[in-house]
Design goal:
The complex is a heterodimer of chains A (376) and B (257).
Chain A lengths: L1 H10 L1 H32 L1 H4 L5 E5 L11 E2 L1 H7 L4 E15 L5 E9 L11 E4 L9 E5 L3 H4 L7 E4 L2 E9 L10 E5 H8 L7 E2 L1 E6 L5 H11 L3 E5 H15 L2 H30 L1 H9 L4 H34 L10 H27 L10
Parallel strand pairs in A: 4-9, 6-8
Antiparallel strand pairs in A: 1-11, 1-12, 2-10, 3-4, 3-7, 3-11, 5-8, 6-9, 7-8
Helix pairs in contact in A: 1-11, 2-8, 2-9, 2-11, 2-12, 9-12, 11-12
Chain B lengths: L4 E14 L2 E14 L3 E5 L6 H8 L7 E6 L2 E2 L8 H8 E4 L11 H11 L5 H13 L15 H12 L6 E5 L7 H16 L4 E5 L11 E6 L2 E10 L7 E5 L10 E2 L1
Parallel strand pairs in B: 3-8, 3-9, 6-7, 7-8
Antiparallel strand pairs in B: 1-2, 1-4, 4-5, 9-10, 10-11, 11-12
Helix pairs in contact in B: 3-4, 3-5, 4-5, 5-6
The chains are: A alpha+beta (376), B alpha/beta (257).
Chain lengths: 376, 257
């Protein structure tokens, strides 16, 4: 049975190539779209996920990161006096205007934090250092946005909100989901750059680190009971809320997931058509097998083995193609993520897709009349 | 039914319906097929030969009548049981050979063994034996496209013998063959009946085949018109046929040489 399945599958090389092309196309499309979805989602919450905080204190009703509203820094002292809190820092996210050396204006998101405090700091610093941010009017940007922001080396000077600023370092891989790059600076600078008239004793967020042995959930409940007019989220909760907002409330995620679904439909359609055509080409053989006493189950196994072979080989090729695309995205504006769980899931999806595609053929062979072998 | 009778058919009828049109392919056929006999079914096109063969082979179900294969009433079996009968009791040989083109001669035979649950070294051994039986050991690794018509049909016979069936049904096995190849195939089928003791039933239009049969059953319009028995055969295959008395109308006593 296995030999017949393989020989019939590989015998017509052109048709097999078409089948594999359909599978590769579908899988690569699904991988790219799903990878974009994962990449987008991760990008929307990257500052939250890398904050090193256990809890986020936000103005009551703030649903996601990018819309922080200021509240009194007195909350900071209430937090610090709560048992179980190891450390808490003020944190700011606000939109600002970046004036390039050539005079062009770019929108940015200014992130204000306490350098050296260990919370809310940028990561993957590839040029310069965190310590440099202690200098007056110093900022860190990601190397991905060198061209956009018109800066190329440490020491380049620009203006942010009509105030002078100087680039003291570059990170790598910190993307912004919006078109506004992140610019990291000291907390005080962030207020000056974005809203000079705002009160210095306000903050957009509080980042909280729990003491060793204290459960974040427990501390969350404790703080929520203590603080008024703010919400307290675990990092994971706030990350998920932010991702959900950007991915589904805006529709961006639905768009890429829809494209992934389209890829799946295309894949099933192409593979179904080629497997069906191959089955019809061999229908007399299936009739002969039935006349010889093969059960329908035997024929199904032939078809399913063909589907599985197609899936496995198509998956292998798709992974090679996807690998290069994913690698290439690392330096682009939108990152495509392909964790090992997605890679493994794609194999399962490929097999399910191909077996589903074979169902039409399976139905056909069930209906084959073995008496057809007696007709010329 | 005695132990030599492999197929016992009584009152077999087959009617095809297409809309309001009825086609009676078989009408009340009684037939017994015994071990060791080479039976030929002959008749003009549309006489019901292939329909009868299909019913005897449990590929088609009769509209009416009773059919026993090796003592088992197949009419009472569920559809899903019929493949078992075909695997265990019947081997088929087709006019168009119906070999699998992507498999070698040995692999074609092996597939028939695989259907019957034979695995491992036993497959190779038995395939070799069957191909040797049809004198095609030297063609074991050839694909059907590389075989002559006669060789293809012999591979098909080897495949049909995979389950060691007591019954062999052949549909026009020599139709696509030249006289030399056709004679080789018919002699093989005759040997399988007379020497191996199988019940071999062959549908044929080919007059060259007639001298080889032990029984010739003439069909016309879905009925058995008459039956002849070959009472004398010799090395030259000169035959003496005598009619078998038939209970139905139109029966005759005729001796032909």
């Amino acid at each position: 049975m296995g030999l017949l399945a393989r020989r019939n599958l590989f015998h017509d090389k052109v048709r097999f190539a078409v089948t594999l092309t359909g599978i590769v196309f579908a899988l690569v499309l699904i991988i790219i779209q799903f990878g974009l979805f994962l990449g987008f989602a991760a990008t929307t919450s990257n500052n939250i996920d890398h904050s090193n905080a256990d809890l986020w204190v936000v103005f009551h009703g703030v649903g996601y990161f990018d819309t922080g509203r200021n509240f009194s820094e007195r909350k900071l002292y209430q937090v610090l006096s709560t048992p179980g809190v190891q450390r808490a820092e003020k944190y700011m996210q606000s939109f600002g205007r970046w004036k390039r050396p050539d005079g062009r204006i770019e929108n940015i998101q200014v992130i204000g934090f306490h350098p050296g405090g260990g919370l809310g700091e940028p990561w993957n610093i590839v040029q310069g250092s965190m310590a440099s941010l202690r200098l007056e009017d110093s900022v860190l940007v990601d190397e991905l946005y060198r061209e956009k922001l018109g800066v190329h080396k440490i020491g380049d000077q620009i203006e942010i909100g009509d105030r002078r600023a100087r680039v003291v370092g570059f990170t790598s891989g910190i993307r912004s989901f919006t078109t506004s790059p992140f610019v990291y600076t000291r907390f005080k600078n962030s207020l000056d750059y974005t809203n000079p008239t705002s009160s210095e004793d306000s903050t957009g967020y509080l980042l909280v680190k729990a003491q060793a042995g204290v459960s974040p959930r427990e501390l969350q409940d404790r703080l929520q009971a203590r603080l008024r007019d703010v919400d307290v989220y675990t990092t994971r909760e706030f990350s998920r809320k932010t991702q959900f907002y950007w991915m589904f409330t805006t529709g961006a995620g639905l768009a890429v997931l829809t494209a992934a679904l389209m890829g799946l439909v295309v894949g099933v359609a192409v593979v179904a058509q080629t497997i069906y055509a191959a089955t019809m080409d061999h229908v007399r053989e299936y009739g002969t097998l039935k006349a010889m006493g093969a059960t329908n189950g035997y024929l199904y196994r032939v078809l399913i083995e063909q589907a599985v072979w197609s899936a496995v080989l198509g998956y292998a090729l798709a992974m090679i193609v996807a690998h290069f695309i994913v690698e290439g995205s690392a330096t682009g504006g939108a990152v495509i993520l392909m964790p090992w769980s997605v890679s493994a899931g794609m194999l399962v999806l490929a097999v399910v897709m191909c077996i589903a595609a074979a169902l039409v053929s399976i139905h056909k062979v069930t209906k084959i009349d073995p008496a057809m072998v007696f007709r010329g | 039914m005695d132990r030599q009778t492999t197929i016992a058919a009584e009152g077999l009828s087959k009617t095809y319906r297409e809309g309001t049109t009825e086609l009676r392919a078989l009408q009340g056929v009684d037939l017994e097929v015994r071990r060791g006999e080479f039976t030929l079914l002959v008749g003009p096109s549309g006489s019901g030969k292939t329909t009868l063969l299909s019913i005897l082979g449990c590929i088609l179900r009769a509209t009416r009548g009773k059919l026993e294969i090796l003592g088992e009433d197949v009419g009472s079996l569920a559809e899903g049981e019929l493949p078992r009968i075909r695997r265990e009791a019947i081997g088929f040989v087709f006019q168009g050979f119906n070999l699998f083109p992507t498999l070698t001669a040995a692999e074609n035979v092996a597939l028939a063994l695989d259907l019957r649950g034979v695995r491992g070294a036993a497959v190779e051994k038995r395939s070799a034996e069957l191909l040797a039986e049809v004198a095609l050991s030297h063609k074991a690794h050839s694909f059907p496209a590389d075989l002559s018509g006669g060789q293809k049909q012999r591979v098909a016979i080897a495949r049909a013998l995979a389950g060691d069936p007591p019954i062999l049904l052949a549909d026009e096995p020599t139709a696509a063959l030249d006289s030399t190849s056709g004679r080789t195939v018919i002699e093989l089928l005759q040997r399988l009946a007379r020497v191996d003791g199988r019940a071999v039933v062959t549908v044929t239009h080919d007059p060259r085949v007639l001298p080889f049969g032990d029984r010739i059953i003439h069909l016309e319009d879905g009925r058995i018109l008459r039956e002849e028995r070959n009472v004398l055969t010799g090395p030259s295959q000169t035959s003496l046929f005598t009619d078998v008395p038939s209970p139905g109308p139109g029966s005759s006593h005729r001796v032909s040489i």
